[in-house]
Design brief:
Layout (H helix, E strand, L loop, with lengths): L27 E6 L3 H15 L2 E6 L2 H10 L8 E3 L4 H7 L5 E2 L12 E2 L2 E2 L8 E13 L24 E2 L7 H14 L1 H14 E3 L6 H7 L5 E5 H9 L4 E4 L6 E9 L5 H11 L2 H9 L3 E2 L12 H4 L8 H19 L1
Parallel strand pairs: 1-2, 1-3, 8-9, 8-10
Antiparallel strand pairs: 3-12, 4-12, 5-6, 7-10, 7-11, 7-12, 7-13
């Protein structure tokens, strides 16, 4: 995936679009993001330091933000949308009038798909800025490494009943990805049977995608479904948490896009350019994310090379046709 393809990311600053700023600056930028608030605020502060302007981070769960953008279609309030449990939410909403088209110069020469991983939208509706791995966090004081689940089916072991947490798919893009993956891998009928069993195993389904991993760190759950960086962030803070990359699991980029009709289109483009700059990529790496820039070394023990053998094929066309249907069916079954 990487190598020469992404070499354009290696510059100290973005050179495309309005990434270098201008005499009147980028102005006020409203950023919608479900990513960790402290993390996104650090990105915002670095952007302000490098480019000027002001970035207002609006935090909420992925699907809550999507609903907000849909409600604001006739009068957009946000400029940039960053993150949402990977590309599937962006794919499902690419043609709904909430995502504008813009591709930073650094990514214009990338292939749309490389090594089976989709890096960007074919019509410039989003670009990936990092790589996410969906897997299992576990509390190392409550679960021995050799006993930790290694596959999605392992989560159904009776010994984990009442000891698992995952986020509410009605609110969280992280768990929406989990449900869609089960549908794609098992078929819808068996996929829903699996999810019914998994719900019976859970002791809570909070709205935030990061909340289950935090619950594991506090001993409120033994196992959590979440992304890799969530576990490694907690581990770096001294929490007794580790992470398992399941045998076959979604591995995909986490994107950024411009909001359609953004009040500050110029600022939105500058922020997207910035996210592919070395400054921003280093912040991602320091927060235990896997940066898309191969020249930036991350603190996470995971790399594309050591996780790509675990990746499952994600049927993007199926997602685009079934995303809303699956979410609505989840609500009918479990809410």
């Amino acid at each position: 995936m990487i190598g020469g393809l992404l070499a354009g990311c290696a510059g100290e600053e973005s050179s495309g679009g309005n990434g270098g700023g201008s005499s009147d600056g980028p102005g006020n930028i409203t950023l919608y993001s479900p990513e960790t608030p402290d993390f996104t605020k650090e990105l915002a502060s670095k952007f302000e330091e490098v480019n000027g302007g002001k970035v207002d981070v609006q935090y909420a769960g992925t699907n809550i933000l999507v609903n907000r953008m849909m409600a604001e279609k006739d009068n957009p309030q946000g400029d940039v949308w960053y993150g949402g449990g990977g590309i599937l939410t962006f794919e499902a909403n690419a043609d709904k009038g909430i995502i504008g088209a813009y591709m930073p110069d650094e990514a214009k020469d990338w292939e749309v798909v490389e090594d089976g991983i989709k890096l960007k939208h074919e019509d410039d509706k989003y670009v990936g800025v990092e790589v996410f791995v969906l897997g299992f966090a576990y509390n190392t004081e409550l679960v021995k490494k050799e006993e930790a689940p290694k596959t999605w089916d392992d989560l159904l072991d009776p010994k984990w009943k009442g000891k698992i947490q995952f986020a509410n798919p009605a609110a969280s893009g992280t768990s929406t990805l989990m449900v869609l993956n089960q549908m794609m891998q098992r078929g819808e009928s068996e996929g829903w049977e699996y999810m019914e069993k998994l719900v019976d195993q859970a002791n809570s389904m909070p709205d935030s995608g990061s909340a289950p991993t935090k619950a594991v760190a506090m001993g409120e759950a033994h196992i959590a479904v979440g992304f890799d960086f969530m576990a490694y962030e907690a581990q770096a803070k001294g929490e007794t948490v580790d992470f398992v990359v399941p045998d076959k699991t979604p591995i995909l980029v986490n994107p950024i896009s411009m909001v359609e009709g953004a009040p500050n289109e110029k600022g939105a483009k500058e922020f997207m350019d910035f996210m592919l700059s070395k400054d921003a990529q280093q912040i991602l790496a320091d927060w235990y994310h896997i940066p898309i820039n191969p020249d930036v070394e991350s603190k996470t023990p995971l790399t594309l090379e050591n996780v790509k053998s675990h990746a499952v094929d994600l049927d993007i066309d199926w997602v685009n046709k079934n995303y809303d249907k699956v979410r609505n069916e989840w609500k009918e079954k479990f809410q």
